[in-house]
From TrEMBL:
GO terms for cellular component: plasma membrane. This is FeS-binding protein. PANTHER family: FERREDOXIN-TYPE PROTEIN NAPH. Residues 432-460, 463-492 form the 4Fe-4S ferredoxin-type domain. It comes from the Bacteria. The chain crosses the membrane at residues 7-28, 112-132, 153-175, 201-220, 236-255, 275-308, 348-370, 385-405. Keywords: 4Fe-4S, Electron transport, Iron, Iron-sulfur, Membrane, Metal-binding, Transmembrane, Transmembrane helix, Transport. It holds the Pfam family Fer4_5. It comes from Pontibacter actiniarum. GO terms for molecular function: 4 iron, 4 sulfur cluster binding; metal ion binding. InterPro entries: 4Fe4S_Fe-S-bd, 4Fe4S_Fe_S_CS, Electron_Trans/Redox.
Length: 514
C-alpha cells in the first residue's frame, strides 16, 4: 500500500472514530422555556408537570436524557390508557426535538469545526485512499484479491461494517434522539439550504449524498477506460446531488412542499397518502405540478422510458437507491446469490410487495374521495405496517446494512416495488436486451460473478442467447469485465429479442423453451 493511501486510510479511520465518539459527548439540560417553545400548546401544562424532575437537570449524554424522557412519558401514557382516557394520551413524538434543544456544551458550540474534523476531513481521507489505488482495472480480471478480502468476502471487516451500518439505520429510523449530536453538525448546512435546523433525515441525506459522490470518484478511477460506466456514474451523482438533495431543500426555503422529483410511485410509497396529497395541494401551483408530474411519471414515464431504454434508465442512471448501490455498494456486488433458489425467493417477494402497495394506494385514494369513510382505520394501519416493514426495515436496515453480507442490490432485487413494476415492462415490452456472442465465450464466469442481481449471465453467454430478465438493471458490469467482448447492451427492435426462454423445472434445473 502506498504511503498516500496509508495516510488517507488513517485520516478516514480517525475521523470515523471521532464521529462515533461525538454521540457520547456534550451536556443536555431542558428548561421550561425550551419545553414551551418546542411542543404543542395543548401539551405544555401536562408535560411541565410530568417532566418536572428533568427540568434544570444536567445529563451527560443524549442517551441518558432520552431514556429519562421516554420513561416519564411512557408512565404518563400508560396511566391514561389504564383509566381509558384516550383523549389525554400524547401520541406526538417529542423526544428528538427536545433532546436537540436541550443540547449544550462542546458539540453545540463547535458545529462547524467538528463537521470539518469528521465529515469533510473523513471524505478527504477516503479520496486519498481511493485515488492512487484505482487507476483502472483490466477487463475480465476476477481473481484480483476481492474474493479473499476480509472486507469484501464476508470476512471480519465486512461483518463488522454490516453490523455498524445496520445499527446506524436502526437508530436513524427508530431512535433518532441518540443521533442528535450528529444532526447538529449539519445544522449550518441545513439553515443555508432550507432556512431551518437539520432533522435526522437531512443528516441522512447529507451522508447519503456524500457517500455517492466520494464512491463515485472511486468508480471513475476503477472504470476509467469504460465510457458507459463513466457516464452512468456521473448520472447517478448528478441526480442524487441535485434532485434528491439540493432542490428539495431549496423548495422548503421557498415555502413549498419538500419533494424529490425523481422519486416515483410505488417506490415513493406514500406519494398518494392523505398527508402527502394535502401538502402538495396546499403548495399552490408548484404543489399541483408535483402531483401531476409524479402521476405522469409513474403511469406514462415508466412504461415509455422502459420500452425505449429498459430498466437501466431509472435503476442504474437515476434512482438514489441504485446510485448508492452502484457506488458505495460496488465492492460487494459479487456477493449476490446466483442460485435458482434465490431467484425463486426474489420473485416470491418483490411482486407480492408491488401488489400490496398497489392495494394500499387504491384504498387510500378511495378513502380520499369518500371523505375517508371507507376502511379509514384499516388503511392507516396498513400505512404504518408497510412503512415499518418495507419502507424502513427492508429498504433501509436490510437494504444497505446487508451490503457486505448479501451484496449491494438486496433491496432492489427482493423488495423494491418500482423495480418489480419496471421489470415487468422490461421483460415483456422493451427494446432493451444484452446480446451475446456464444462463439467467443470462454466460460471464465466473470460476468456471473459480478452480476449484482444474481443472474447467471454465463449460462446465456455460453448458448449465445439474449439476456432478457425482469431483474436486470442494465448496469453493464458484465460486459465491462468480459475479456472477450461477448456481451453488449443494446436497444433494438422487439422482434427477435427473445430467442430461447429459460424456465425452471421442479428439480431446480434449467430447461430451455423453444
Amino acid at each position: 500500500m502506498k504511503i498516500t493511501q496509508k495516510i488517507g486510510l488513517g485520516v478516514f479511520l480517525l475521523c470515523l472514530l471521532l464521529f462515533n465518539a461525538l454521540l457520547f459527548m456534550g451536556q443536555f439540560e431542558l428548561t421550561a422555556q425550551q419545553l414551551e417553545q418546542t411542543i404543542k400548546q395543548e401539551h405544555v401544562a401536562v408535560l411541565k408537570q410530568e417532566l418536572q424532575p428533568m427540568l434544570g437537570k444536567t445529563y451527560s449524554s443524549s442517551f441518558a436524557f432520552a431514556t429519562d424522557f421516554n420513561q416519564y412519558l411512557d408512565n404518563y401514557n400508560e396511566e391514561q390508557q389504564r383509566s381509558q382516557q384516550w383523549d389525554r394520551v400524547i401520541w406526538d413524538d417529542y423526544v428528538f426535538a427536545l433532546t436537540k434543544v436541550a443540547s449544550q456544551g462542546f458539540v453545540q458550540s463547535n458545529k462547524l469545526l467538528l463537521l470539518f474534523l469528521t465529515v469533510v476531513l473523513g471524505a478527504a481521507g477516503a479520496l486519498l485512499y481511493i485515488l492512487p489505488k484505482h487507476r483502472g482495472e483490466p477487463a475480465g480480471v476476477r481473481n484480483n484479491g476481492v474474493m479473499f478480502s476480509s472486507n469484501k468476502s464476508r470476512g471480519w471487516v465486512g461483518i463488522t461494517l454490516g453490523v455498524y451500518l445496520t445499527a446506524v439505520y436502526i437508530l436513524l429510523y427508530w431512535y433518532p434522539e441518540y443521533l442528535v449530536n450528529w444532526t447538529m453538525l449539519v445544522d449550518p448546512l441545513s439553515r443555508a439550504l432550507s432556512g431551518g435546523p437539520a432533522s435526522q433525515w437531512f443528516l441522512y441525506g447529507t451522508l447519503y449524498t456524500l457517500a455517492i459522490l466520494v464512491m463515485g470518484v472511486r468508480m471513475f478511477r476503477k472504470y476509467k477506460g469504460n465510457a458507459y460506466q463513466l457516464v452512468r456514474t456521473s448520472s447517478v451523482m448528478f441526480f442524487q446531488l441535485s434532485f434528491a438533495f439540493l432542490i428539495p431543500e431549496i423548495l422548503v426555503l421557498l415555502n413549498k412542499p419538500w419533494q424529490d422529483l425523481k422519486n416515483i410511485w410505488p417506490l415513493d410509497y406514500d406519494f398518494y397518502f392523505d398527508y402527502s396529497v394535502a401538502s402538495m395541494l396546499g403548495g399552490g401551483a408548484v404543489g399541483m405540478f408535483m402531483l401531476i408530474w409524479g402521476t405522469l411519471l409513474a403511469l406514462v414515464g415508466v412504461p415509455v422510458f422502459t420500452y425505449l431504454y429498459g430498466k437501466r434508465w431509472y435503476c442504474s442512471w437515476v434512482c438514489g437507491c441504485g446510485g448508492l448501490a452502484e457506488t458505495a455498494g460496488d465492492p460487494y456486488r459479487h456477493l449476490s446469490d446466483k442460485s435458482l433458489k434465490a431467484w425463486k425467493v426474489e420473485r416470491w417477494l418483490v411482486y407480492p410487495i408491488l401488489v400490496i402497495i398497489v392495494v394500499i394506494t387504491v384504498m387510500t385514494i378511495a378513502n380520499y374521495f369518500t371523505d375517508f369513510a371507507l376502511l379509514e382505520e384499516y388503511t392507516n394501519v396498513l400505512h404504518q405496517w408497510y412503512g415499518f416493514l418495507i419502507g424502513a426495515a427492508f429498504a433501509g436496515v436490510i437494504g444497505v446494512g446487508f451490503y457486505p453480507l448479501m451484496g449491494n442490490r438486496v433491496w432492489c432485487r427482493y423488495g423494491c416495488p418500482l423495480a418489480a413494476y419496471i421489470g415487468i415492462v422490461q421483460r415483456f415490452k422493451s427494446r432493451f436486451r444484452i446480446t451475446t456472442n456464444g462463439g467467443q465465450c470462454i466460460s471464465c464466469g466473470n460476468c456471473s460473478a459480478y452480476c449484482e442481481m444474481g443472474i447467471d449471465v454465463r449460462w446465456y453467454a455460453q448458448r449465445g442467447q439474449n439476456v432478457v430478465r425482469a431483474s436486470c438493471v442494465g448496469c453493464g458490469i458484465c460486459a465491462t469485465v468480459c475479456p472477450r467482448g461477448v456481451l453488449k447492451l443494446e436497444n433494438g427492435p422487439e422482434q427477435g429479442r427473445i430467442t430461447d426462454i429459460p424456465i425452471l423445472t421442479g428439480n431446480d434445473s434449467i430447461k430451455v423453451l423453444h
